[in-house]
Amino acid sequence: MFQASSNLKVLREVLCDHLELPDHFLGVHAFFDGDTIFARDVVQVNYELIPFPVDFERVWDWFKEQLRGPPEQETFVYELGFGIEHEEDPVRDRLVEITRGSGMTVWMMDFAHQTPTDGRRFVVVTIPDKKRVREFRETLHGRHIGAET
Fold it and tell me: 17-23 long-range CB contacts below 8 Å, 24 or more apart?
């Protein structure tokens, strides 16, 4: 789960391009201390209509504002595959679990289009202090952390 590093620039480009598609699914969720603190799913399904007007810059500015924290905060971004057809989501469940007592906030953005298995998932982790950043780097960053862990 934390193996494929990415960055906010790539996430921004994917989000911008994705919102222009005539059919798409966008899921945005945030987890903190074992709870879901934000959840929004948007589905554009009508091929006959132009995409619902979404002000990309305002969406991106809102998201960046949510990531703001103290000067010592670090932000990590990862990219994974995503299949919208799955009823169960062990990665999501594991992300919620990882946040419990950790002080970190995890944002999950899911992008899907046309086929149920062609999606992309970005995981954005914000950690507010150097001690917890070090712990994260030692235990999770660059490692496969599946539902079974």
Answer: 18/111, 18/113, 19/51, 19/54, 19/56, 19/59, 20/51, 21/51, 21/113, 22/46, 22/47, 22/49, 22/50, 22/51, 23/47, 23/113, 23/114
